[in-house]
Each structure stands twice: as structure tokens, then as C-alpha cells.
Write a structure and sequence with these properties.
The complex is a heterodimer of chains A (443) and B (518). Chain A is mainly α and 443 residues long. Chain A has one domain: Orthogonal Bundle (ABC transporter involved in vitamin B12 uptake, BtuC). Chain A has 20 helices and no strands. With 518 residues, chain B is an alpha/beta fold. Chain B folds into two domains: 3-237, Rossmann fold, CATH 3.40.50; 255-332 and 418-517, Rossmann fold. Helix content of chain B is 34%, strand content 26%. Chain B has a six-stranded mixed β-sheet with strand order 6-9-10-3-11-12, with helices on both faces. A six-stranded mixed β-sheet of chain B has the order 18-21-22-15-23-24, with helices on both faces. In chain B, 51% of the residues are buried. Classes of the chains: A mainly alpha (443), B alpha/beta (518). Chains A and B meet through helix 1, helix 3, helix 13 and helix 14 of A and strand 2, helix 1, helix 2, helix 10 and helix 11 of B.
Chain lengths: 443, 518
């Protein structure tokens, strides 16, 4: 590329307005007054900033729903067969299907308000519990998603792209289930924390490996974590064939059952309401991660190294130690995700546990802009989509995989903020959070 | 070619970068464009080069209105630009670099016609005495020659208006003189030159007329004959400024920093600092002059625990200096790194966090695992006031500050404690006159408090103005130590360019070095 072409490319790709004022924006800053002596800094803009931060994910989600709707319409058999003869009618039918599908999705995620109200009015305990089932399912599926989302977000804050939450989750589950079924006669307040801890340690160990490899040899964590995912899958396969794990009398790959003293209790005891205390583990983890990142010395180092390793080194931080530590912490979070599944949801370990929650963590961290609160919200959202997918399929014959398509669309729209901005004509903001996240691949 | 900009305005969200700018460049004129960083010089030139569209106003070439949708149009219209950072492919030859983008071809398979291109390059090179070997690989060429390759590139594309963006930033004084000879030769051939700079001496020496920009507006256009450095500086800044560093004679006390036979390798394993000896006393400023890339960076890194020394010793108050940044910090060494945004600050962190970058781990900011953000903010508020950092709040992202204010954040962080030694590399690079004045004053203040100060700079004005002794570094060695009185630009330039002392003033230099070393 010649000297002449290079600026052209920059200008045409739409970067010009963001890079341009760097030279001149200064003048504007200079004019503003210094904070008055002793006065608390102006935090009035924080609400606006929060709303701005929410705008992009919200629009990405909206776009995903719209494109998802188009996918439903163009893949609908009635639409395909009648479009030639009656295009208006076919489209109307398509729209009806879309609304039915999204309605079912919503009902599957948060339930039917009417049904809930009736149950409350009728004071019918069983009806109430049935009405709560969708919310319970949403909580259930979002629990591990929040934890893996935190695992990805934490590592990202330290400048690392942790694609290995899936493997860390598997190893965490492997360790947690072992502790869960091995000890008998322990009190629950000893056994359950022990099993959770085992899950965290298992995941941490699996996070340590890519961290140490990166710190020592510079091996890129994206490559090593992806590879370690496969190793983790095969380790689970293998373990489930050993007498240590395999349930006696079974020939398939299934582990022994977790002792009741190590299970996460259900929130409400009822066969239809599977949500368990794991959600509190996830929420507590979000609080801890938030504290760690923004209120602790280590978190200061994580974020500094993530934003600028050079300056961090000049400031006397150990880049290698920070990399290892952040991967260990991320691994522990993903390991906890595995633990909540085996101790709360399945109470046993089988191959493919978690249905790819580790990979979904990447999407959730992205959607949550690598902020703990954002990750919790994104986890609930994607968890809700997952929970609603099955009722949607039952109601409309639209395969549950549509939800996966929509999730992929969300990621795509968030990873391509310029696209969303172009569609909705929003002015560019400074590159933070998710955008930098999406570009992190190249680093 | 005659070039005219009429009533150019350009704003970016929240910022008016150019306001109603008029600029007239006559054929064969060298027009100096002077202004502080952020004055809108670059925006204006990017409009001229087709990178931005002006909101208002027009561009006229030879009195005909011109519209550039992109640099391609500008190049076709005869406008050439030599960027501050060269746009060359290091592993290509000069010829290949020059023809890149306008390749001449021959034959049915469109083979590259290097011969034709080479012939034209030789012709251009000879016409303007550029002395460029068309077959040399760019990576083997010194910086000054690379710049000439950039100039050839524009001439090869038939440029009639040549924009030079801070062309002397990377050159030695001698190379600058050579560049001026070339510029005069180009002008004699009818090319018009726009020479962008913030260096007053240069613009006075080379320009036919000088236009000064401040905050996006034209303050005035003057000729060198009717103006002075002081007057230009005042136009740039908007108030009278002091151009010389105001300081009393130094009162050196005991040696603080003693380097003996220090040898350091760079990242590629090459010897960057070779067997270097240097002593800095308490209460004096030693300024290390030299062309970029002569081992100064590695020297600063070795001093601050960022780079392991191969051999030799670095003593701080008689003790070996620490081998990691934190123990060096504890030994009361302050460090202003040469690249603000790369090494000195964390963009994305706010001002308070950046000010705590060197002490976040110790009380009162960090206790155990806890980070006391309110304490961090309080300290930052205080320092923002004390060091006059212009910002609405300490919670603003440091990346949004101007260069001068960013440097003030670093200075505030590093200077706000009792220092035994201060190592400052390029402390005022790219800053405006007002900020330079301020930072120089702070450095002298530090010296007067008894700190040993080591300045590493490529700006000769700074070296001579600030240094109590001036050490010239060439290829990893100190090749001469001068007092400010002895340090004429010519003598410094010769030493910086690696002139062998024996060829010039062997006895004289030895005597000077001896005299200055005491």
C-alpha cells in the first residue's frame, strides 16, 4: 500500500471522524474549567453514559430479533409455497408466524402473566408453581452462563481472550462431581462448599495452563485455550469410563450421583421448578468480580495490564504474574459454572455437560460489555432465550436452533458496531468495552 | 502552482478544528504553517490532501476551484504530502517504494518496468541533488535519506505543491540543513512548499511567509523579516512566553548516579549502549543529546530497571541500582518515559488512576488487597490543582487530554515526592510552547531541591537550555561532554552526527570534556 493509499483507506472505512479530532479536541478540553476546589467531581453524566452504554447492546438485540424474524419468514413452508400466487397473503402469514414464535419465546422465558395472576387470585399453590416454571427455567439456564460470562469478561479486562471457559467448565464439573459423590456422611455446610471449591480449583487449574504458557513462552491464549477445550472434553470422556467415576451397573458414560449433602438446594421444592441456589453462587461471583476489578489492588493491575501492558511494566507491575493470575481467576469462575450444573441441575456428569455454556460465555461477556452487572443482565437474557426456545418449538414448530441463530446475530451486531451505527445512524463514541473486545482478536 | 484556501471551516463533534481559515501560497513560495499542537494545522492539511471535506470554504488551485474526494484526487491535482511518519516499505528498494501505486508496466503480462521508474528517479535525484541510490533497500537508509525518498515519491507523481509535516522532527541539525538546501532547490524549480512546524528557528530560516494558527483560526501571516521568535511564540500561544529556560547556575553536590562501563543490548540483541561512563551529581541537570536511536532509550530503560545491563555498573548513591522498576521506584528515582501514551499513561484509565500508577500498591492508596479509590481521587484532585492539569474532573479518561496535559499528569505523578534521581526522556516532545515552559520550570525546580536530573532529548534547544552539562551520545557512547556555553548547535551537530573528534578538534574536545566533567 502506498503512502497515498493508506489515508484513503482510513478515511473510507469511516474512521476519519474518530481519529481526526485527536489533534484538535484538546482545545475543547482546555477551555473547560478545573474542578472547583474540594468539590466532588461531577457525576451527572454517569446516567447518560450508562444509557449510552446500553444503547448498542439494545439495538444489537433489536436487530437480531428483526433478522431472526426474516429468517422465520423466508424459511416458513407456507410462505415459500404460496409466495408466488399470493405474496401479500404469504407475508401476512409469515408475520403471524413470527409474532406467534416470539410470543411463545417470551412466554417460555418469563411465563404467562395471565396464568400467574389467575393462580395468585385462586390461591392455587400448584397452579402458581406451574406458572413460575418459565422463570425458574430461565434462572436455571442463566446460572452457568453468568459464571462463564464472568470468566471471559475478567480475562478480557486483563487483556486476554479466554476462549477456554468451556474446557474450564468441564474440568470444574469433573472435580466438583468427584467431591460430590465421593464423600458420604458429611454435613451439607461442609460438603457443598467443598464441592464448589473443588469445581473452582479444577477450572483454575485449567486456566493456569494457558496463562502460564502465555506468560512463559508468549503462546497466544486463544490458540491454547481452544486446544485445551478439546483436551478437557476427552478427559471427561475418559474419566467417565473409569471405575472411579462411572456409575456402577451402567455401560454408558455417566457418573455416580452427587450425594444430597453436596447438592445445591432448589429455590422452591417442586418437580417443575428446577432452579437452584446456583444462581446465588453466580450473583455472589459477580459481586466479587466487580469488587476485584474496581476496588482491589489486583484488579487495578488486571485492568492496567489489559489496557496498556507497556505502561504497566513501566509502573512496576509484573505482566507475567498478572496474566497467570487473571487466567486462574477466570478458570475458577468457569469451573464454578461446571460445579453449579453438576451439583444443582444434573447431579451427575455426562459428556457434553452444559450444552456449550462455556462458549456462550463469550457472547455474554461481549453483550455485557465485560462489566459484571452487564454480564448478569446478559446472562439472564440469553438464559431466557434458551429457556423459551423449547416452548417456542412446541408451539410453532420453529426449531430451537433459531435461538442460536439469534445469539450469533447479537454477537455479530455487537462485534460490528459500525454496522449498527450505520443502520440506526448513531454518532460514533469512543472505543470502549465491547468494541475493543471485538477487536481484541488481532491482539 | 498557486494554492488558495478560502474561508475553510471544519468541525468535529464538539470541536471546531478550523474556523474561517484563509491561506494563500504563491507559486514557488515556501509557506510556513506554525501553530501549537491542536491548533488545527493537521486538520487543515488533511482537508487540502482530500482526507476530510471542509464544512465551509473552498480550495483553489491556480484560481480554479478544486474538489478532492480523497487523496487520489489531491495527488492528481499536483498536491504531495510527506507525512511525519514515513510511509515506506522497508524491505523494498527505493525504486519499488517510489513506483508503488503508480507502477509503470510493459509487455502483455504487465511486468513491472523498474528500468523506466529507476531512470526517472535518477533524473529527479540529480536535478535536486538528493543523492539517493535507487537500488538501496529502504531499511538500510538513514532517516534523512528516507525522507528524501518520500520527497522523490511526491515529485515522481508530479507534485507542484508539497506539504511537509514536521519534517525536521527526526533529523540531525546537519540533515535539517541538507533538507533546507533541497527545499530551496525545489522552490527554484517552481514547486510551492507548505512547511508545517512548531519550531520557531526553522520557520524563520526557511519560510518566505509564515501563517500562524491558534485554536483553529489564522492569527496572522507575517514575513520572517518583520518578526521575531518572541513575536511568533506570542502569536502561537496568545500571550508573551519566555523562550529561554530561566535558571540559576547549578550547584552540584555529591555524585548521585554513577555509570561505569555500562553495556546494554536492545530488543534485537544488538549492542545499544557500549561501555558508557557518566556521572550525575545532586543538584545538576545533565542533558543527553543525540539523534534518536543512538542508545538513549536503552540507557533510560537500564537506569529505571526495565532492561538488564550486560556489563558495567550503575550506582545510585553508591549502591547498585535495582533491577526492576519497583525497587528503582523505592530508591526514589522518578521516570518520565519518552513515549507518553505508550509507556507513561494508560489510556482508558482516568486521571486519578494514572496518577496512582506508581503508588497504587502502597498506603495510603492501596492497603493489602484493597484499593482506596476515594484517597486516590483526593490525591489526584490535589495534584491536578498543583500542576495545573486542565480537565473537567479527575475521572476523565486521560486519553482525552491534550498532549501537554497528559505530560503534566506524568510530571505530577513522578515529581510529587522527594526524588534522588529524575530520569526524563523527551520530556516535552510534541508539546506546545506554554507546556514546554511549564515543564522546564518544574524540572529546574526539582534540580534546585537537590535532585540529580538526567534529561534525554533530541531537541537541541531543550538540551542547551536545560542542561548544566550536555553529554552527546552517538552509537551507544558518550562522545563528548560540553557546557551550555561550549555547546553551539554546530558543535553539537557534529558530535551527534558521529564526526570523529580527531578529525575536528581532538585536543579541544578532550579539553572541553575534561573541563565539563569536573
Amino acid at each position: 500500500m502506498s503512502a497515498a493509499d493508506q489515508p484513503t483507506a482510513a478515511a473510507r472505512s469511516g474512521q476519519a471522524p474518530t481519529t481526526a479530532p485527536s489533534d484538535s479536541a484538546e482545545a475543547g478540553v482546555d477551555k473547560k474549567p478545573v474542578t472547583p476546589a474540594g468539590g466532588r467531581p461531577d457525576r451527572g453524566g454517569s446516567m447518560r453514559r450508562l444509557l449510552r452504554g446500553l444503547l448498542l447492546p439494545a439495538l444489537a438485540l433489536l436487530s437480531a430479533f428483526i433478522v431472526g424474524g426474516i429468517v422465520i419468514i423466508v424459511s416458513d413452508e407456507v410462505v415459500i409455497t404460496t409466495f408466488g400466487s399470493d405474496p401479500i397473503g404469504a407475508l401476512a402469514h409469515g408475520l403471524r408466524v413470527v409474532f406467534r414464535a416470539y410470543g411463545a419465546l417470551l412466554r417460555g422465558a418469563i411465563g404467562d402473566p395471565g396464568q400467574l395472576l389467575d393462580a395468585i387470585v385462586a390461591l392455587d399453590d400448584n397452579a402458581l408453581r406451574r406458572a413460575l416454571n418459565p422463570i425458574s427455567e430461565t434462572i436455571l439456564s442463566s446460572t452457568p452462563l453468568m459464571l462463564t460470562g464472568l470468566a471471559v469478561a475478567l480475562a478480557f479486562r486483563a487483556g486476554l481472550f479466554n476462549i477456554g471457559a468451556e474446557g474450564q467448565l468441564q474440568i470444574g464439573a469433573l472435580a466438583a462431581v468427584l467431591v460430590g459423590f465421593s464423600f458420604t456422611g458429611l454435613a451439607w455446610f461442609i460438603h457443598l462448599p467443598l464441592a464448589l471449591l473443588a469445581g473452582a480449583i479444577g477450572g483454575a487449574a485449567w486456566g493456569f495452563i494457558p496463562g502460564a504458557l502465555k506468560a512463559r513462552t508468549g503462546a497466544h491464549e486463544v490458540i491454547t485455550t481452544i486446544m485445551l477445550n478439546f483436551v478437557a472434553f476427552r478427559m471427561v470422556d475418559y474419566a467417565l469410563r473409569t471405575p472411579l467415576y462411572q456409575r456402577p451397573g451402567r455401560t454408558d458414560q455417566i457418573s455416580k450421583i452427587v450425594e444430597p449433602s453436596a447438592t445445591l438446594p432448589q429455590l422452591i421444592e417442586h418437580p417443575l421448578l428446577r432452579a437452584h441456589w446456583g444462581i446465588f453462587v453466580a450473583l455472589a461471583a459477580a459481586v466479587v468480580v466487580s469488587w476485584l476489578l474496581f476496588r482491589s489492588v489486583k484488579g487495578f493491575e488486571f485492568r492496567a495490564v489489559g489496557l496498556n501492558p507497556h505502561a504497566s511494566r513501566y509502573a512496576g507491575m509484573s505482566i507475567a504474574r498478572t496474566i497467570v493470575l487473571s487466567m486462574v481467576a477466570a478458570g475458577a469462575l468457569a469451573g464454578l459454572a461446571g460445579a453449579t450444573i453438576v451439583l444443582g441441575t444434573t447431579r451427575t456428569l455426562t459428556p457434553g455437560l452444559g450444552g456449550g455454556a462455556g462458549f456462550d460465555g463469550i457472547a455474554i461477556a461481549l453483550l455485557g460489555r465485560a462489566r459484571p452487572a452487564g454480564v448478569v443482565a446478559a446472562g439472564l437474557l440469553i438464559g431466557g432465550l434458551r429457556a423459551g426456545a423449547t416452548p417456542m418449538q412446541a408451539a410453532t414448530d420453529i426449531p430451537i436452533h433459531l435461538v442460536v441463530v439469534m445469539q450469533a446475530l447479537v454477537i455479530m451486531f455487537i462485534a460490528a458496531p459500525a454496522l449498527v451505527r450505520a443502520i440506526y445512524r448513531i454518532r460514533a463514541e469512543r472505543q470502549i468495552g465491547a468494541e475493543a473486545f471485538a477487536k481484541g482478536w488481532g491482539a | 502552482m498557486k494554492l488558495e484556501l478560502r474561508g475553510i471551516s471544519k468541525s468535529f463533534p464538539g470541536v471546531l478544528a478550523n474556523r474561517n481559515v484563509d491561506l494563500l501560497v504563491q507559486p514557488g513560495e515556501i509557506h510556513g504553517l506554525l501553530g501549537e499542537n491542536g491548533a488545527g494545522k493537521t486538520t487543515l492539511m488533511n482537508i487540502l490532501y482530500g482526507l476530510y471535506q471542509p464544512d465551509e470554504g473552498e480550495v483553489l488551485l491556480d484560481d480554479a476551484q478544486a474538489r478532492f474526494a480523497g487523496p487520489g484526487d489531491a495527488i492528481k491535482a499536483g498536491i504531495g504530502m510527506v507525512h511525519q511518519h514515513f510511509m515506506l516499505v522497508p524491505v523494498f528498494t527505493v525504486t519499488e517504494n517510489v513506483m508503488l501505486g503508480v507502477e509503470s508496466t510493459r509487455g502483455p503480462l504487465l511486468q513491472l518496468d523498474r528500468g523506466a521508474a529507476r531512470a526517472r528517479i535518477v533524473e529527479i535525484s540529480e536535478r535536486h541533488n538528493l543523492h539517493v541510490n535507487p537500488d538501496a533497500l529502504v531499511e538500510d537508509l538513514p532517516v534523512g535519506v528516507r525522507q528524501r525518498v518520500e520527497i522523490i515519491k511526491t515529485l515522481y507523481r508530479h507534485s507542484q505543491v508539497l506539504i511537509l509535516d514536521e519534517p525536521t522532527a527526526v533529523l540531525t541539525p546537519q540533515e535539517t540543513e541538507e533538507l533546507f538546501v533541497i527545499i530551496r532547490s525545489l522552490v527554484a524549480g517552481g514547486t510551492s512548499i507548505i512547511f508545517i512546524t512548531h519550531k520557531l528557528n526553522e520557520v524563520l530560516e526557511i519560510a518566505d511567509r509564515i501563517t500562524v494558527l491558534r485554536r483553529g483560526e489564522v492569527v496572522g501571516t507575517v514575513t520572517p523579516a518583520d518578526t521575531t521568535r518572541e513575536a511568533l511564540a506570542a502569536m502561537m500561544v496568545g500571550r508573551p512566553v519566555q523562550l529561554t529556560v530561566d535558571k540559576s547556575p547549578s550547584q552540584p553536590a555529591a555524585p548521585v548516579l554513577e555509570l561505569t562501563g555500562v553495556t546494554v543490548r536492545d530488543d534485537r540483541g544488538q549492542l545499544a549502549v557500549r561501555d558508557l561512563d557518566l556521572t550525575v551529581h545532586a543538584g545538576e541537570i545533565v542533558a543527553v543529546a543525540g539523534v534518536q536511536g543512538n542508545g538513549q532509550t536503552e540507557l533510560a530503560e537500564a537506569l529505571t530497571g526495565l532492561r538488564v545491563i550486560e556489563s558495567g555498573s550503575i550506582l545510585l548513591k553508591g549502591q547498585p541500582i535495582g533491577s526492576d522498576p519497583r525497587s528503582v521506584y523505592r530508591a526514589r528515582v522518578g521516570h518520565v518515559p519518552e513515549d507518553r501514551l505508550e509507556d507513561g499513561l494508560v489510556a482508558g484509565f482516568n486521571i486519578a488512576e494514572n496518577m496512582a500508577l506508581n503508588n497504587y500498591w502502597q498506603p495510603p492508596v492501596g492497603r493489602g488487597l484493597r484499593l482506596y479509590r476515594d484517597v486516590m481521587a483526593e490525591i489526584a484532585e490535589e495534584r491536578v490543582r498543583e500542576f495545573d492539569v486542565r480537565t473537567p474532573s479527575v475521572f476523565n479518561d486521560v486519553g482525552n487530554l491534550s498532549g501537554g496535559n497528559q505530560q503534566k499528569v506524568i510530571v505530577a505523578r513522578e515529581f510529587s515526592r522527594d526524588l534522588a534521581l529524575l530520569v526524563a526522556a523527551q520530556p516535552t516532545r510534541g508539546l506546545d510552547v506554554g507546556s514546554i515552559e511549564y515543564i522546564h520550570r518544574r524540572i529546574v525546580e526539582k534540580r534546585d531541591q537537590g535532585t540529580a536530573v538526567l534529561i534525554i532529548s533530541t531537541e537541541l534547544d531543550e538540551v542547551v537550555g536545560l542542561g548544566d552539562r550536555i553529554a552527546v551520545m552517538y552509537q551507544g557512547k558518550i562522545v563528548g561532554i560540553l557546557t551550555p556555553e561550549q555547546a553551539t548547535f554546530e558543535r553539537l551537530g557534529l558530535l551527534m552526527g558521529g564526526a570523529h573528534p580527531e578529525e575536528h578538534t581532538a585536543e579541544e574536545l578532550a579539553a572541553l570534556a575534561h573541563e565539563a566533567a569536573g
